[in-house]
Amino acid sequence: MTYLDVVNEVLRDVNEVPLTALNFASARGIQDFTKKAVNRAYLDIVLFSQEWPWLLDTTGANGTIVTSTIQGQQFYDLGQLHNIDLDTVVLRDPDTGATTNLDYISYDAWVKSQKVSEGKPTHIFKGAGSYGVTPTPDKVYEITYSKWDPATRFTTDVDVIPFSDQFTSVLLNRALFYVWMWRENLDHANMNNTNYERGLVEMKRQLLGSKLTRMRAI
After folding, report:
1. Three-class SS string for 55-94?
2. What is the CA angle 45-48-53, rounded to 5?
3. Fewest Cβ atoms nearer than 10 Å: which of 55, 62, 67, 72?
4. In whole angstroms, what is the distance from residue 16 CA to residue 38 CA?
């Protein structure tokens, strides 16, 4: 489905006139509010997890990013609002080919730890808009991890909803919640919100699976 499709589904449910591709950009009143409600609903879904599959950066093979450390550099910029799975970061020594998983530690734990000046990194921690490894790399190592991109709002009528149609009802129910709240119809709003929460549980189960118990990402 497209952004226009979802907006019109919501408008029909509240007995309002659907939009067309011609008047979508210039929508006013309830139509304009519905456009905003759909975006707000989408971001509510995204806020539950930083690891939804449609946000996975697929520029690398098998959805993994391969980068390298720099000798003497401890912190590495990740890009604004990007997330990496801190539990599955793999370090590879290019000289020996040996690979090890970097263990996650909190920033506070790193601050309190006895810092080794340089060596083979054994741990990874979250920094301010970056990640850090410790000890500070004594040479170039290869690092592999999964990365998720930040969510972006829908803007044009042809923007495609990034998940399967079977989960569109979750988005619709949350958007309808906001529209009914705007209309001060609390009964309808609460009903749609209940349906949203139930649908989100199933969406979590099918798309996140075991990740429900592991949500540690930058």
Report:
1. HECCCCHHHEEEEECCCCCCEEECCCCCEEECCCCEEECC
2. 75
3. 62
4. 15
- Across the range 68-97, mean pLDDT stands at 83
- Read off the pLDDT of residues 91-140 as tens digits, 9 standing for 90 and up: 999 999 999 999 999 888 888 886 778 999 999 988 777 889 999 999 99
DSSP the chain: -BHHHHHHHHHHHTT-PPP-TTTSTT--HHHHHHHHHHHHHHHHHHHH-S--GGGB--SSGGGEEEEE--TT--EEE--TT-EEBTTS-EEE-TTT--EEEPEE--HHHHHHS---SSBS--EEEE-SSEEEEESPBSS--EEEEEEEPPP----STTPBPSS-GGGHHHHHHHHHHHHHHHTT-HHHHHHHHHHHHHHHHHHHHHHTGGGGG---B-
Report the pLDDT value the prediction gives residue 150, as an integer from 0 to 100.
81
pTM of the shown model:
0.75
Peptide bond into 18 cis (omega under 30): no
Q: Whole-angstrom Cα distance, residue 80 to residue 210?
A: 27
